């Protein structure tokens, strides 16, 4: 990120702090024994990336069994073939009845078999739909045992290792978002009307970080702090290469010529 030119004499400089734009304690939707952890502190992670997996042997076996049931169409195919045969037989019997070769009783018997087979086919199709719904539910339950990152960021802390029990409300990691960064500063109340949302200021991190970087005012507090006679504001500082660390002091300069 290119450094800005130094500020003019009329510019006003204030202390500030560079923070992550977001800090998230990542917890799973359910508790359980941690079977696999796929990250270490300091690693970059992407939104949706699997961070850890809880013990899921039983759930995976259930999914595999239901996949077999949901994919099995043999019963449906057998009932359809039987129904096709009986309907053909019914049609032939109706022809024979019209010719006076067979009685109404024979036709009624075959019609009863057709009706019964249609019922069996409907039950087989329903059973397969139920199996498919059970499979969907089982996969959803299995997915609850995978803990994914809710944001793009960097792992700050890791709290559990393989084999340890993660409680229901326990966090397995803390992730911080370092792009963009959040710059927080407090200005005297007399300057309240001198800054505006969207204004560009110059942020200079303290040593050993070099350079001065543009940041945009993203929030201005509407409530003053009576004790200190100040108001807070927040700036967005883009940090695509993660060159600028968070948790660092800085100076912010307003009235910079761009």
Description:
Residues 121-148 form a coiled coil. It comes from Falsiruegeria mediterranea M17. One of its GO terms (molecular function) is efflux transmembrane transporter activity. With 258 residues, the chain is α+β, with helices and mostly antiparallel strands. It has two domains: 12-55 and 153-254, Elongation Factor Tu (Ef-tu), domain 3 (Beta Barrel), CATH 2.40.30.170; 57-143. It contains three helices and twelve strands, in the order ββββαααββββββββ. It has helices at 57-71, 74-98, 104-143, and strands spanning 12-27, 32-37, 44-45, 50-54, 146-148, 153-158, 165-166, 171-188, 200-205, 213-220, 230-237, 248-254. Strand 9 and strand 10 form a beta hairpin. Helix 1 runs antiparallel to helix 3 (104-143) and helix 2 (74-98) packs antiparallel against helix 3 (104-143). The longest helix has 40 residues, at 104-143. The protein is elongated.
Topology:
Elements: E1 12-27, E2 32-37, E3 44-45, E4 50-54, H1 57-71, H2 74-98, H3 104-143, E5 146-148, E6 153-158, E7 165-166, E8 171-188, E9 200-205, E10 213-220, E11 230-237, E12 248-254
Antiparallel strand pairs: 1-8, 1-12, 2-4, 2-7, 3-6, 4-5, 6-8, 8-11, 9-10, 9-12, 10-11
Helix pairs in contact: 1-3, 2-3
